[in-house]
Amino acid sequence: MLDRVYLDWNATTPLHPEAREAMAAAWDLPGNPSSVHAEGRQARRLVEEARAAVAGAIGAVPRNVVFTSGGTEANALALTPGLRRDPGLAVERLLVSAVEHASVLAGGRFPTESIGTIGVTSSGLLDLNHLRAMLEGGPSRAGVGDAGQ
Question: What is the pLDDT of residues 112-130, one digit of tens each?
């Protein structure tokens, strides 16, 4: 039998052994991190330690690290207009790659006419010339194969 290489990491990425061990240890704690009792405080401490570890690994401030259940939730959170720090900065358009996950466009956060699709090369890489043209000229509905392949 041939060895197989798992490449479908869209929804079921294999866990790194250290992540699996940390999760298993956390599952043994009954506390809700939002509770004030001893078990809740212990759970909160673990969450905050994990947040600090991730922040340290990527050079971020711990308070800016948000944990989500997966990519779809992360995309929805990132594209929620209320999260912008300066409410005076209106978002006029959303530019996404032609191969973006459907969750980026879900939820109706942006009017259809304000969404531009950036073409990708035949290798699946963002076509930077197409992106540059879109940034200079406004939204475009061009997709895969329409820009500089």
Answer: 888 889 999 998 899 999 9
Specify the amino acid at residue 61: V
**What is the number of alpha carbons within 13 Å of residue 109 lying toward its C-beta?**
19
46-50 contacts: CB < 8 A, separation 24 or more?
50/22
Q: Which residue has tokens 């690994």?
A: 57
> For the whole prediction, is pTM greater than 0.90?
no
Q: Residue 67 contacts by C-beta under 8 Å, 6 or more apart in sequence? A: 47, 50, 51
pLDDT per residue as tens digits for the range 90-111: 677 888 999 888 888 887 777 7
Contacts of 110 (CB under 8 A, 6+ apart): 79, 91, 93, 94
3-class secondary structure per residue, 71-98:
HHHHHHHHCCHHHCCCCCCCCCCEEEEC
At residue 40, what is the residue type? Answer: G
